[in-house]
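Supplementary Text 2. Reproducibility record for the structural model of the 112-residue chain.

All settings were left at their defaults, and a single model was retained for analysis rather than an ensemble. We include the record here because the model underlies the residue-level annotations in Supplementary Table 4.
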Amino acid sequence: MHIQAINPLARSSQPEPAGLPVGKAKQDAEAKLKESCRQFEAVLWRSVLEKSNSSQSGSEASPGGDKTGTYQYFINDTLANSVSGLPSSFSSVLFAALAPHLPQEPKSSNHS
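Retained model, structure tokens:
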């Protein structure tokens, strides 16, 4: 039974899964997927932070509602962006799970 490593550094020592694009296209696809995973994690963090702040204040903190709400929105946004994408974060686990499923690079045909 083969279990893939979640740690991206450990993953690099494993053979690459079949079907992944090669070269520059592979790097581009992986970079886009990694950024998408990081953004998804940031959205989750924003949601968690917003809910935790609204439960403390007893009302929904909406951006632009008042100065406190506006500042809290920026604080939540900054925290979410800072925490997402760390080496052992949810986005790393998500990337490790999705990377083997990247589409194949189309094969070029050399018809003369």
